[in-house]
């Protein structure tokens, strides 16, 4: 009986020998490419060049959080140096052990939600993910879509319905907004601190019409 052995073709090239050769094969899903000779910042330069040449989003898995953060910083440097406008993001791990009886920081969870939302909308060119983070569960895509709503100036939106939406999405009503995930209501003014925002938002209503949306400091 004749048997045939099928193995994936492997192409090994170094960065200095020509990244153009790698770009020719990157869109062939069945082809494995072994890239050698990349050290430290040269990895970031390779990824920046790669993102310029391919249309698909790229996910880079790093062995740990520190390596991923350093890689993103190096990528940001080369993008600024070469004036490249691409959205590179880092997907952080929760930062807690599986059975610790504590919650992750609101900043970390906000960043994770923002990255998931952008990735779902195909707004990220390259995503750097530590192994620890990729092993952690995330919000299902459909559930994330169902819990996202937008507001804009001049829109008709009942204030009471906004309060209901915020409570349904896990926000906590407080007398004054101080931390992410909080909101407060004072007359026709609703203050909201979204988990993905640096500063909280102040939404001013006139009857059921949104008059203004602006950031403010806490």
Automatic annotation (TrEMBL):
Q: What is this protein called?
A: UvrB interaction domain-containing protein
Q: Which UniProt keywords apply?
A: ATP-binding, Nucleotide-binding
Q: What is the lineage of its organism?
A: unclassified sequences, metagenomes, ecological metagenomes
Query: Which GO CC terms are listed, alphabetically?
Result: excinuclease repair complex
Residue ranges annotated for the UvrB interaction domain, each copy included: 150-217
Q: Name one GO biological process term.
A: nucleotide-excision repair
Pfam family of this protein, just one?
A: UvrB_inter
- GO molecular function terms here? ATP binding; ATP hydrolysis activity; DNA binding
């Amino acid at each position: 009986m004749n048997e045939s052995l099928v193995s994936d073709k492997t192409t090994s090239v170094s960065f200095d020998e020509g990244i153009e050769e790698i770009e020719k094969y990157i869109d062939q899903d069945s082809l494995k490419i072994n890239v050698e000779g990349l050290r430290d910042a040269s990895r970031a330069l390779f990824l920046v060049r790669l993102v310029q040449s391919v249309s698909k989003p790229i996910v880079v898995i790093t062995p740990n959080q520190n390596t991923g953060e350093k890689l993103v910083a190096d990528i940001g440097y080369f993008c600024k140096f070469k004036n490249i406008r691409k959205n590179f993001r880092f997907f952080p791990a929760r930062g807690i052990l599986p059975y610790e009886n504590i919650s992750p920081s609101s900043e970390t969870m906000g960043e994770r939600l923002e990255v998931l939302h952008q990735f779902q909308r195909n707004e990220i060119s390259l995503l750097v993910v530590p192994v620890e983070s990729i092993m952690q569960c995330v919000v299902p895509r459909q559930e994330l879509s169902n819990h996202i709503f937008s507001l804009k100036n001049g829109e008709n939106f009942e204030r009471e319905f906004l309060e209901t939406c915020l409570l349904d999405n896990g926000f906590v009503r407080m007398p004054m907004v101080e931390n992410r995930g909080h909101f407060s209501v004072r007359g026709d003014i609703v203050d909201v601190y979204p988990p993905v925002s640096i500063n909280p938002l102040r939404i001013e209503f006139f009857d059921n019409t949104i008059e203004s949306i602006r950031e403010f400091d806490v």
